[in-house]
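Subject: Sanity check before I submit

Could someone independently write out the structure tokens for this chain? I want to compare against mine line by line before I put it in a report. The sequence has 122 residues.
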Amino acid sequence: MGAPEICDGQTESMNPAIRISMSDPAGIPALQGAIRHAHGCESRYVATVYVHEMYDGETAWRGDVEVFDLVGHAEAPRAYVWSEAKKGRKRRFFVVLHAPPVDSPTKAIHASVLCHGQRLAR
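---
Independent answer below. Compare away.
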């Protein structure tokens, strides 16, 4: 089953994978700050999408991806953002642009995992 589609800021209210309430513990302002820092543009929160990716019958990644429309970005209309806890009270932020081949929250997770795997292989 593919990732739920989110178009023009509208969400499918019947799809339980899409929520209108933001759930990343960092909060919307911190996530928008990560977008601003990484890509130099403002953003508008759209939705929260739950992603559960399996690999060989095991959970490879599970969590919420926050979807933001970008304001004034030259190459992408949207970004997929999430954070993870680090030691202490710090968080690591992930910002993936909606640009080919990334066209959904699930593909943003795939791109991030692939990028992280390539870094570990070096």
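---
OP: Matches mine. For the report I'm noting this point. DSSP finds two helices and five strands in the chain.
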